[in-house]
């Protein structure tokens, strides 16, 4: 979840997140919400209805709000061709050079 200070409410930390709300016989509603404290109570406010968005786009937004990179950005971006051991060379090598 990402947190920031809200300029409309000084001293209050606002957290944004994506939530899926069950909807009886219909598909769940996908909502962008923010959470904040007011007078010692936790309040939630819905900012947008994301139900019409494709699932991949909703997942990418949820990952970004959690501080993670988008999944598609890293898929297949790297190919490991060689991996070397790490650490102090003197502790890895049993013999002399």
Overview of the molecule:
- The chain is α+β, with helices and mostly antiparallel strands.
- It has one domain.
- It contains 3 helices and 4 strands.
- A 4-stranded antiparallel beta sheet has the order 1-2-3-4.
- β1 (2-5) and β2 form a beta hairpin.
- The protein starts with a strand and ends in a 5-residue tail after the last helix.
What's the count of strands? 4
Largest sheet: 4 strands, antiparallel
Described by the principal axes of the CA atoms, the overall outline is flat
> What proportion of the residues is helical, as a percent range?
10-25%
Termini separation = 51 Å
The overall pLDDT average reads 79
Number of helices: 3
Poorly predicted sequence stretches spanning 5 or more consecutive residues: none
- Number of domain units: 1
The share of residues in extended strands comes to 35-45%
Quick gist of this model?
By secondary structure, this protein is of the alpha+beta class. It has helices spanning 55-65, 71-74, 89-92; strands at 2-5, 13-23, 26-38, 41-49.
Tags for this model:
97 residues; alpha+beta; four-stranded antiparallel beta sheet; 38% strand; flat
